[in-house]
Amino acid sequence: MASSASHDATPIPVAPARAGPGWAGPGFVEFVALMALMMGLTAVTIDSFLPAFPAIQRDFSVADPNRLQLLVYVYMLGFGTAQLLYGPVSDGTGRRPALIVGIAIYLAGSVLAMLAPSFEVLLLARAIQGIGGAAGRVLAVAIVRDRYDGRDMARVMSFCMMVFLIVPILAPSLGGAILFAGHWRLIFGVMLALALVTLAWFGLRLPETLHPGFRRPVSARAIGAGIAVTVRTRTSLGYATALGLTTGCIMGYVGSAQAVFDSGIYHLGALFPVAFALIAGAMGVATLINARLVRRLGMRRLAHAGVLGLFLVACLQLALMLGFGGRPPLWLLIATLAACQFLMSFAMPNFNALAMEPLAAIAGTASSFIGFYTTLLAAFCGLLVGQSFDGTVLPLAFGYCALSGLALATVLWTERGRLFGSGGR
């Protein structure tokens, strides 16, 4: 196993993969399911309550409907910032204690959200949920890296990222069903229940995965050194940046979706979650295909094909949207967004795996910094796109085109101008 991509300046020792017969934890299918649940918990929290925006606006007398988007972006702010802590702490204490603390914080935020007396308190609760939910995102990636490397790691990450990417887009259907049965506060009760299931499953079934030889002191100096190594590793920084930019497309879509599909343009009402589900189906298909192909074709080839295709389709989408004055037929918007999400699903899991691949010896710290960096970059880009909504889909189309173009340029910088031909990975 190579310790780093050949063009990285910083050599880093690599952990031995521990997927063999000595493993005392769950088998492959159960392991992937648990990691996917850890990531899916954070994902379902992002936007399962989008259908509840009108009810929340009414209950709390929120005058500006664009303020409701803050419920997504405040969560992402807490989620992104807290990721800086969980990885380094888990590198010193182990993955299990760090995750248990994170889920406890998430549970507290969920209870506060259920009881929130005002919109401001609900925003605070969302930030606390983000701080706690960051543990699942960071530690799932670190645990996968503890156990697997190379294309096997990419395969597992593909399944996990499928859940992380699809759940926020399917979650409005769950939220809509809960709203049909009762009050919007019940949505946070479901989040609470999912967190308890995750805590019990993790606590009972998954042993500590951090190799004793890779425990690092929990200190500002050690954390700073790990972050410095991550930033100096060209492959890691480049693919993390590309991941943040492509995730920014999704965050812009999530922030704009309620206005585009319901209140602002198409007025779908109860059919709003159906539009989400159609687009999510494309992502699910692509991620499953990626998981099957990555061991044969390699992470780089699939990631490069995905981001290049995404940029080309995003440019076509922008041209079509301009042709319809920013208000295209609904079927055309869904078709072009589904095509973009399909191609994006080849890029993002492999971007994540490529960013982590050279950093096994500091997997926790690296996962934390990469998660922090990509989440805040994505939230910032998504906020710019979402807050630019002007009654048309043009801000969304411009956002996809610009962000995918920047991601492609970043990949070209990372690979020194080469695509598709960077060896076995």
UniProtKB/TrEMBL annotation:
Q: Name one GO biological process term.
A: xenobiotic detoxification by transmembrane export across the plasma membrane
- CDD domains the record matches: MFS_MdfA_MDR_like
Q: Which Pfam families match?
A: MFS_1
Q: Where are the transmembrane segments?
A: 28-50, 70-86, 98-117, 123-144, 156-180, 186-206, 237-259, 265-290, 302-324, 330-347, 359-386, 392-413
Q: Which UniProt keywords apply?
A: Membrane, Transmembrane, Transmembrane helix, Transport
> Where do the Major facilitator superfamily (MFS) profile domain residues begin and end?
28-417
A GO MF annotation of the entry reads: transmembrane transporter activity
Entry GO terms, CC: plasma membrane
The membrane-topology field of this record reads: Multi-pass membrane protein
Tell where it localizes.
Membrane
**Record's protein name:** MFS transporter
Which species does the entry assign this protein to? Answer: Methylobacterium nonmethylotrophicum
Task: Give the taxonomic lineage as stored in the record.
Answer: Bacteria, Pseudomonadati, Pseudomonadota, Alphaproteobacteria, Hyphomicrobiales
